[in-house]
Amino acid sequence: MTYRIEVDRDVCMSSGKCVADAPDLFRFDDDEIAEPVPGAPEDLAEPRALDLARACPSGALRVKNADDEEIDLF
Ligand code: SF4
C-alpha cells in the first residue's frame, strides 16, 4: 500500500524540516508554510511517508491512504 502526505497549514510552524528532507515533495509557499510540490508523487512507500511525518516538529504532516483515511504515526 502507498500513502500521500497532507500539510495542516494551521499547525505548520515553518521549521523547514520536511522541505529539507524531501525537496521533491515539499516547498514553502509565500507565507513560508509547507505545501506539496506541484506534481509531487502521491504514492509514497510507507516507511518514507511515516518517517517524514514523524519528523515534523509540530505534527503538521498527515499520512493518508488511498481511501483518504489518516494513518496513525506512532
Ligand atoms: S516539518 Fe512540519 S512544521 Fe516544519 S515546515 Fe514541514 S510541515 Fe511545517
Automatic annotation (TrEMBL):
Q: Which SUPFAM superfamilies match?
A: 4Fe-4S ferredoxins (SSF54862)
Supply the name of the protein: Ferredoxin
User: What Pfam families does the database record attribute to this sequence?
Assistant: Fer4_15 (PF13459)
Q: What does this protein do?
A: Ferredoxins are iron-sulfur proteins that transfer electrons in a wide variety of metabolic reactions.
Cofactors demanded by this protein: [3Fe-4S] cluster
Q: Where is the 4Fe-4S ferredoxin-type domain?
A: 3-31
Its domain of life reads: Bacteria
Q: Which UniProt keywords apply?
A: 3Fe-4S, Electron transport, Iron, Iron-sulfur, Metal-binding, Transport
- Quote the InterPro entries the UniProt record gives: 3Fe4S_ferredoxin, 4Fe4S_Fe-S-bd, Fe-S_cluster_ET
The organism of origin for this protein: Pseudonocardia ailaonensis
